[in-house]
Design goal:
single chain; 138 residues; mainly alpha; 7 helices; 60% helix
């Protein structure tokens, strides 16, 4: 098996690394919670008044950059959970096939799972009753 990267793959990895470093720097130095923030507000929230699936993700990443995990989790619990399994998914994609991961990969690779999870989360985080209010950005 040839493990050498092609030039386009190297360029893609370099662009991703640059974007990650730039994003980290922006999130470290600019607060999305502050008035006049350089980060735009959620367009869906601005138009409808409801939270979308991704609402709070920028503030979640800002809290993570500042190592405030509880605050990050309060901003978008689903995104935090997905972020926590992403290294395992990347390892699986790169060839690490741990037997214990197979059921998780099987579930996450089913479109039906996402077609149920995302709309259910979207609706649940807009319900005004406890415990659903815990899903809204804090």
């Amino acid at each position: 098996m040839n493990a050498a990267l092609k030039p386009l793959q190297i360029a893609g990895l370099a662009a991703a690394a640059f974007a990650a470093v730039a994003g980290f720097w922006l999130l470290r130095n600019f607060d999305p919670n502050a008035a006049g923030s350089i980060f735009p507000p959620c367009a869906f929230r601005e138009l409808t008044g409801f939270y979308c699936v991704g609402c709070g993700a920028t503030r979640m990443l800002h809290a993570l950059v500042h190592l405030d995990v509880p605050r990050a989790f309060s901003m978008n619990p689903l995104a935090m959970l997905l972020l926590s399994v992403s290294p395992l998914l990347a390892a699986w994609k790169l060839g690490w096939r741990a037997t214990a991961m197979q059921p998780v990969i099987a579930l996450l690779s089913q479109p039906r799972f996402w077609l149920v999870l995302l709309p259910a989360y979207w609706i649940a985080r807009n319900l005004p009753w406890f415990p659903f209010t815990l899903l809204a950005p804090g």
